[in-house]
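Ticket #4471: structure output looks truncated?

Reporter: J.K.
Steps to reproduce: submitted the chain below (280 residues) through the standard prediction queue, then opened the result file.
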Amino acid sequence: MEVSHFELIWKPQSPATPIGQSGIDKVFQGYFLKITNLEPVEYLYTVEFVVAPGAPAERNLAGNTIVFVDTPGSNNAPGVLNGNLASTVFTPSSGTIRIPPNGTALIAVLPSAFPVFGNPPIDATPLPSDNFEVRGFVRLRLPAVFRAIQLPNGNFVFRRVAQASNPVRVMLTPQNRATYYGVGGALSDQTQATLPTASGRAINEVPPDAPFRFNPADFTIDLDRLNLVERLLSDSDRSVTMAALLASLDPDKTDLATMNTSLAAAGINFALEHRKPKNG
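Returned output as attached by the reporter:
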């Protein structure tokens, strides 16, 4: 579901100094989102920051932001937004956000205008100049998750399943928080403003994501997409990512013949086949 707009700023408040003035303040503005899980069970949430494609570096989230996630179980865990200059959807590097029953999480996204020392340390490069602004909108999802499912024969298999059978109730409070710095760099003012939600309500219902379904029409392989995925994966993640993707497939609704045809056309010398669970 769409939550609200967001706007990140680290730049002078005006493109020129007014006549008779010695200078103008710079504004440092971040986006803050409080999420309260109103349900009696714990859920995992994904927060996505959606922007227009092809923006120049000073108007792009890639490498220019710092994220803090504060939950009942973690105090201001620092991170960054995952994505590159070609991305349109960015997510916190910390992954899904775990919120217990009636718990509240706070997600803060800020321009990387200052160094951050986390444990473990994060890879956040300070902005090269004070000419940064990005606008977009925020989306909240309830992603499908992996669970061990017991088969009639007693064996267990990993399957990606929806977290809930019905929409999940949450309370959302999005805000802009800004700090202003004078010509000499001294703090001059601070403001915060609650933003309207896309639904017009504070209490919303988030529909659960369905498990992954393979769509042959969307399964195209090209060099650009392969290189993009390659850049997003670390060496230690490759094996588990491959296993996770295979476990996401529904064996009863996946057209492996079409998938294997696409793999062969791309020169990838592997094929997939169905395997029945072992008895006993």
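Triage note (M.O.): checked the attachment and the full token line is present. Residues 64 and 82 are 11 Å apart (CA to CA).
Status: closed, working as intended.
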